[in-house]
Each structure stands twice: as structure tokens, then as C-alpha cells.
Amino acid sequence: MVEPSLFETLLLDSFSPLDSAERSKCPQCSCYRKYYCYDCLIPMVEHFPHVSLPCKATILKCKKEPRSKSSVVVIKLFSPENSEIIDCLGEDSSVPEFPPQTMLLFPGPGSKTLSDLSNDELLGIKNLVFIDSTWLQTKSMLRNQRVANLPMLRLENHTTAFWRYQNESKNSLATIEAVYYAYVDMYKEKFSRGLETEAYQGQYDNVLWYFVYTYQRIQNDYIEKKHKGKTFKHIPGYIKNK
Fold first, then answer.
1. Residue 209 and residue 49: Cα distance in Å, rounded?
2. 169 burial level (CB within 10 Å; 0-12, 13-18, 19+)
3. For tag attachment on the chain, is the N or C end more exposed, with fewer CB atoms within 10 Å?
């Protein structure tokens, strides 16, 4: 189960823009949104953080799942110049061909850890691909040869803090968590080899800005506010009583 102390070390921008947010009409689609428009991928509040990702993040989002349920489409607001959201199905042509030096983040057979990569391989990563779908739909994605042919990278020793129930292990991360840990672990691996001159300074922490805000809001609602005294039935032990 998630440890609350995980978030205490993150260097995050202030949540005040989110705290003061009210629903308003999206200037592009005219739908009412509170924090950001997940369809148009534009913020509805000022001062959304910007994160400079070291290489491109490509999100293959299953188009059977609504964007409103996705944890990761918000990455396009944090790093608009170095991220891409592709709504697709595994067996259709909407999955693009990927350029050289692309890796798929997935713990499949033959996947490597960051420590398995040579210095040239580690420094050469230009594009990280993440699958944003249910585990059942992920199998369909992996049947697409453009996805299946990518070298796979897996993460180690991370526990999810996601509030949506899933019957996989506690190490099965929400997609936005996977994006965050992939870039942080990559940086730390480079530093350990002398390929970065300074230790990690929190430069990717704001990838989890909206995720942590939502986590804290759920905790607060069940401890102090509208769900006070009720049990969060989806995941036993999820609410951390003060």
C-alpha cells in the first residue's frame, strides 16, 4: 500500500490555482471543466506547471476509454512540446511507426531495466512509449507489430498510489506514475554513472502535481469532509487516518 511519505519529498508547485478553481466553459469545445479540459488538453486554471522532459513521452491511449478517466493525458499540459497523446486501438493503423531510439515501457518478456542498458543506450533514448489502457486492452496493443517490435524497458521497486481499483499487483502503476518514475529513474541512473553532473533536484516532480492534488483531496474528503467516517471500499487501507 502507498506510503504517504512518498509525496512529502516532492518539490511541487503550489496547489492554490487548483484550490480556487471553478467550473468554466472551455474556450475550444464549450464544455464545462474545472481544472483542465481533457478533450482539448488545455488548462482551465492559471499557473499550470511546466516540466522539461529529457526525451519525448508518447502515450498510446486506448480510445475505448474516455479521456476523463485517464491519469496521464495531463502530461500534454505539463510538457506540450515534448509529449504526444495518440488515441488508438491495438489492431488499427492509428498506432504510428516509431523512430529509432524508441523504447516501450512495459515489463514484458525480454524487457530490460535501466541498469541493464549500456551508456550509449541510456543516453540514446529519444522517445519513451507508454500504454494507457486497461490490462486487457494492453494485450491488444501488444499484438500490434509496431508496438511489439519496440525494445522494452521495465521499472523496479515502485508502489502505486492510485485510487482506482485494479486487480493487478501494488506495483502496477497508474500511467502518470509510470511516466514520472521512468524519467526520475533514468536521471538517477545517469547520475550514478557520472553521465549527469548533479544529483536529481526534483525537476520532474511536477509531473505528479495534479495526481498528488487529487490523492490528497480524496484523503481529505474521507477524513474531514463530505465522506467523513465512511469507508473507502475500493482499496482497503487506502485512507490514511490522521
1. 8
2. exposed
3. C
Domain residue spans in the chain? 49-207
Cβ atoms < 10 Å from Cβ of 118: 8
Which of 99, 42, 102, 26 is CA-nearest to residue 76? 42
Going by their DSSP bridges, the two strands 36-37 and 102-105 should be labelled as unpaired
Q: And the C-alpha cell for 63?
A: 480510445
Rounded CA separation 235/134 (Å): 17
CB 167 within 8 A of CB 140: no
Q: Dihedral sign, CA of 44, 49, 52, 58?
A: negative
CATH topology of domain 49-207: Alpha/beta knot (3.40.1280)
- pTM of the complete model: 0.91
Residues 54, 183: Cα–Cα separation, whole Å: 8
Q: What is the residue-level pLDDT of the chain in tens, covering all 242 positions? A: 344 567 889 999 999 999 999 999 999 999 999 999 999 999 999 999 999 999 999 999 999 899 999 999 999 999 999 999 999 987 777 899 999 999 999 999 999 999 999 999 999 999 999 999 987 788 889 999 999 999 999 999 898 887 775 655 566 799 999 999 999 999 999 999 999 999 999 999 999 999 999 988 888 887 777 777 677 766 666 667 65
